[in-house]
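Message: Study each token:
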Amino acid sequence: MDRRKVHFLQLALLLLIVLGWEFSVRLGWVDAFFFSKPSDIAVRIFEWFKSGEVYRHLWITLAETVLAFVSGTLAGVALGLWLALSPVASAVLDPFLKALNSVPRVILAPIFTLWFGLGMASKVALGFTLVFFVAFFNTYQGIREVSPVVLANARMLGASKNQLLRHVYLPSATSWILSSLRTSVGFAVIGAVVGEYLGASAGLGYVISQAEGVFDTTSVFAGIVVLAVFVVLLDVAVSVVERKLLVWRPAPGQEGGTV
């Protein structure tokens, strides 16, 4: 389907939802105390940006997200490479990693707050735990999916361990790692916002939490909208990076050539 047509349909659906919401509240079908009105939400967002109040919160959430994303991805990729290439270490650590991955991250937030305080460190730690396992499992699987035939041919040609890592293992895992980046960004944002929501002095999660505390539904929805746009922009940025790094990959439908 033509991309412009898709964008048009997306915009039409968004307008339909917003207008339906607006008139449902205005006509009294929906209680404004619980849902507010899109027009009031838009005004509140405009006031936030006009006064500059929201920029500090956006910056803090962005910094927490980036730190959690980068540190979690690097650590997950490094451990994934090591365990995928070390069968003994993988066998020993496998049950421990699975046990850690099964722990709900939300229950770690209060512990991290006790350990690291209400500042940025506790939010980065929570985001790290979410991003780390996504990067780890994708890297591990990507290395394990390397074709044995390719490995055997490379070894026959005299490739060293470093050459195998650089020219065989890493290229094989690259698609797996990059395909997980968009998911990792979402998890990094979740870690930052949930941490702010449970205990912080700034950030988008803090803004939403404070608004809920005084039953200000307009500010709650305004914070959610700003957060949604924030995540979409991050996703677009990651998508651009992914396309640049995977420019060598054939487009869908071209892998098998023409028939």
